[in-house]
Write a structure and sequence with these properties.
The chain has 310 residues and is α/β, with parallel strands linked by helices. It has nine helices and 16 strands. The radius of gyration is 18 Å and the shape is globular.
């Protein structure tokens, strides 16, 4: 068993929301919204961020209703409200803040302000799926268990369960026991996989009962599901700000699985969303792609998937 200062919101984001559509699917997202100080090639911008923003905006772009369980401030409340996100969390006096130094596709992360706890009462949510993506220590184990008991499909990005901060706030990952009972799908990179399992074999997560294991290793993305391995590679490109791309990827996979009930298409949509976000060469939430851009990129990947047995 694996047991594993106010930001400037910038210009408006065109998500192509199609507000007249009948939105029949609803996803709950449990995470944090943050203020991110992002430095790329020596240029620093302070922007609103966190999975609460990236995942919510992506889900709305793909036509799902969203209940967000995360602390918000006035600036972020405006962004999410304009996108039609229902905010279930509390107002935050101070948002958690991260300093991120991006260079050659890698990031050094430092925690400046801590997160506030996400609160959830069991039995109060009626949603089709839950995305659980803690940032740093804001989702207690009992809250995680309550969410899993209420949601039929649970997507986990475990990063915030694994992170530790030193005396200067520098973030690293540590070997951590996280209960994956009841988790339907998980996204991990190489470092997160090692922190969860103690090794580099993603099949350990499949063996723990997770139906769909999404493993990102640089530009190479693999999915293990149903005894098969699916493989895609993102195009070579100059990599700029990657902040939030994993959250966009996760939301796209989860939402497409709900709407289409098609595993391969969900995998391609996730990769397509990440690729479309990187193609913007934008910093912060300005990189969240429209549905049209995601669909175009996903169609390309659909014809390039490689398959194999586990």
């Amino acid at each position: 068993m694996v047991r594993l200062p106010s930001a400037n919101c910038g210009t408006a984001i065109n998500l192509n929301l199609h507000n007249g559509d009948a939105l029949q699917m609803r996803v709950a997202i449990f995470t944090s919204c943050t203020t991110d100080e992002i430095t790329v090639d020596g240029k620093t911008q302070t922007v609103p961020g966190g999975p609460g923003l990236y995942s919510s905006l992506t889900a709305r772009a793909l036509g799902l209703d969203v209940d967000l369980y995360a602390g918000v401030d006035g600036n972020i409340r405006t962004i999410l409200g304009d996108a039609g996100v229902v905010m279930m969390g509390e107002d935050a006096k101070t948002l958690p803040m991260f300093s991120l130094d991006v260079s050659n596709g890698t990031r050094k992360i430092r925690l400046v302000n801590s997160c506030q706890q996400v609160r959830y009462t069991p039995g109060t949510s009626s949603v089709d799926a839950a995305i659980v993506t803690p940032v740093y220590d804001e989702i207690a184990p009992e809250t995680f268990e309550a969410v899993k008991s209420d949601a039929g499909f649970v997507f986990l990005d475990p990063q915030g369960f694994l992170r530790r901060a030193d005396g200067q706030g520098a973030i690293s990952l540590a070997r951590t026991d996280v209960s994956v009972d009841g988790v339907s799908a998980i996204k991990v990179d190489d470092d997160e996989l090692a922190a969860l399992t103690g090794g580099d074999d993603a099949t350990l997560l499949s063996g723990a009962g997770i139906d769909h294991v999404l493993h990102t290793a640089g530009k190479n993305i693999r999915m293990l599901s149903g005894g098969r391995r699916y493989m895609l590679a993102l195009p070579n490109r100059k990599i700029g700000d990657t902040t939030g791309v994993g959250d966009i990827f996760s939301a796209a996979f989860c939402c497409t699985m709900l709407k289409e009930k098609d595993l391969l298409w969900a995998f391609c949509f996730a990769c397509g969303a990440a690729n479309a976000a990187l193609d913007t060469h934008k910093t912060g939430i300005q990189k969240v792609p429209s549905r049209r851009k995601i669909e175009t990129s996903a169609a390309y990947f659909y014809n390039t998937v490689e398959f194999g047995s586990i």
